[in-house]
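At this stage, I wrote out one protein, both as residues and as discrete backbone shape codes, and that material follows here.
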Amino acid sequence: MTETKMPTRITGEWIWKNSLLNRPDSFLLMRKEFVCTTVNLDTLLWISANCAYQLFINGRFVGFGPRAHQNCGVSYVDMHEVTYYLESGINVIAVLVYYNADQGGHNRHSPGLWCQMEAQGKLLLCSDQTWVVREGNCYCAPRARLSKDQGLSQFFNADDCPLNWTTPVFLTDGQWKHPDYSTIVGDDFGSKLEPHPLAPPGIAVENPVPAPFARGKLVQPPNWTQVTFEDADGNGMETYAANTFLFSEIDESLPARVYSDDPMKLFCNNRLVLNTSEAMGVEVKLPLKAGWNRLLLVQNPGRHAMGMVMMIPSDDGREFWFSRAPEKQASEGWNTVGPLKLSLEEATPSLKFGRLVQDNYVPELEYLTDPDAYLSQSRFEAETLPADEEEAKLAWSRPLQTGDFALYRLDMVRYGFVRVTLEAAAGDLVDITIGCRRTENGFISAGKEVRGTGTIRCRNARNVYLTFIPTDCFYIMISVRHTSGSVKVLGISFEELVRNERQETTFRCSDELLNQFWEIGRQTLRRSAAFVPLAESRADNDCYMLDAYIDAVNMSVTFGDYEYASARLRQFLDAQLENGDIPALTFGSRHASQVHQLFFLPVWIYYNYRFTANITRLRETIPSLDLTLEYFEAMIDENTGLLVDTETRFSFDSRISSGEFRAGEIPTYINALFCRFLLSAAEIYRTVEEEEKAAHCYDLAGKVAEELRNRNFDPACSLFCRWSLESERMPDHNLFANFCAMFGGVLPLSSFEYFFYSFFNYDPPFDRSDESRHPYFHFLFMEMMFALGQKEWPFRYFRDYWSKRMCPEANAWRVDFEHDDPAPTKFSEGSCVSPNIFLVREILGIRIAEAGHSVIYFNPAFHQVDWAESVFPMARGRLKVKWAVQEDGSLDVTLDSSFPVKILPEMSHKQLANTVFRLGEKVTLLNPTPEYDIDDGDGDGEN
């Protein structure tokens, strides 16, 4: 793909609407007509927005962005090649821009849009006050967040949205105005612009059509009530309250589920039932007494907040009436008051409404703020469709009534946007749920504690619903909440967001399970490469070093995308703080430490160099590596010579270890990984001929290893304890501490066998510890095992692990062994870890011997599979590899290359003598070194 470049001369302005300047959760529709006398090749559009945009040209969906910048004062610029979308004559660029803030109203970005279009260096348009804009109130309403810390779920009032506003045929009316707030780029308003090191993902040219899967009716909906504070328009710091009354025939403890995005207290009579910052279906017991019971809610709601939704199971057939007063003649609903002088912290059930100005709130299904909660607590009963294909098509063509649903499914989990076209009447309400797993009650799950439901309030006739934010999708459910007649599904499509790769590795072997691993890994990488983090403090946006490193090396071997790998690394180096620390990449006001993952920085730097042999880029990383080394050295405890209190000083998310540490304890895994950091840094310093720094790293690694062995190694069992033996706690000789000790070179190789049999079995079940199930551990453990020359046991273990992680139906990895949900696309908790690099390196047998692939080790896994073949893009060209075990046991190998390459077999002379090599003109076969002549087996011994 083309690397992003900026215009020679930046022009245009950041533009916005004054009335929305300090209004989080606001949309702005923006458009501009322009003329192209001729459509030139290489027409480029640069665009940035705070916080996110959808871009259309002549009504066609072009892209979404920008990917958020880790520096809140800077915005990345996306560069789109738009020649394909332009026409000779009048054209229209239309942009839907969304601005939001974190809970509490924090956002250091100012809202706005900047763009500039050029054709072969000639300016075609730029953002300025000649554009026309319209407030996007059609997207705003009280609604639930997607999940904790995430943005709000989607709502679209089609009747309030101008029809065809993204197309040239649209004519603006009096509601469209020129932007009345603007400034030149780089001023206080808006952001400084910086090109993203990678071109933005785009909408795929060919997209799959979701297939009909099931249809039927929603049955057994729950009892429910809700209350929202419609006057709340601030940042969630003001206090509001609401009460209602519930009648019970008997004393009972009534189960209920509570949903809320904002800090709240819930009282039943005089008892505090719930005190929480947010609630995603929290189970509570309402202590009801015979007669009338008062429910009191006190909350700090933000703008367009969902308020509180309560679901009560309807299994016993009872219905519940929530009354505004403790009498049977009272009207249904809640009494609301606020804002109050009272703070949430000081709220007690003694709060009385008598002397306060009260409003009434009546919950109606039409205005339900959390339809996902309602649907998830209902049951979906599928109808039996005719077996005949034509009759089934006829059944699917029937319109949907109130309470009906239709379910569609893609061919696999994909990342992008759902587009649904409906024919309906004005005011009809349709909920559209997107997710990756079907639950037991027939609903669609978007993940644990994640809402996947958006809503469209229809206009009369044709309606188009397009999701605004890209998401993982396998299932799409359309459920009709209310219709005055019927709703007809005219069309449903999925617009996939992809990074267009120029090349791709092909891999096949005789083991179909391994081929499935490759394909699932490939699809996982396609999604991760297209992932767009948003400018919000969302934990699912955070990017951690270990996740990015594993993703980068897999992208290199799967797509030959070495530029992607380098760009990912540069983002972390650019985020380095003045003291040498590099936190996880976060895109809002939050900070996430990743000291525990920062030890892998030199490992990643050296990997990049090994792939490309770009010594200039390697030298450019040295200042960052120097500063990181100084950062760790400054943390070393003077008394012990080790890293102490690291776990207690920093709050780690996306953890790589399990268990907690106490103040003063010396974590084995942290210090062992520090040794790995020092050894890898020494390799880099030697490569750039800074021998003094290399010697210093080797010397320090030796001292740390010795101190760690003296303090944390338990000779009684020949294993490391998680913490120092001087700790007051009982020793804990866990797997991860001992793995890190071996991975970091602290535990000698002579201890390998004892380490192995302490934590693993030679035959299934292989694992003795649940720690080995984590994707981080598995990837690093495989790295170590294969590096130690082990092959037979690691291959069986590798095959067993990834087969248990497979979701073959969705062509994705399961989030873990216990849950069927596909792993979400994100760069934390090992969610996108895939095994592709091991398939190329350990099965196909191709491994770098000298940087830049000038010399390649060849060690085919002919004891594990019968044949393997691949066309592998490398930094300087393509390598074709094909080998197969013949009936007589000999090996037939074909090696061809588009660039000069030397192949060094890691095979014994006996194996070589039984191998036929067919070499291309640019391939040179080297003689193996004597060390490979000692073993003609699989290199494993017993293991």
User: Anything to note?
Assistant: DSSP finds 18 helices and 48 strands in the chain. The chain has a mean pLDDT of 91.
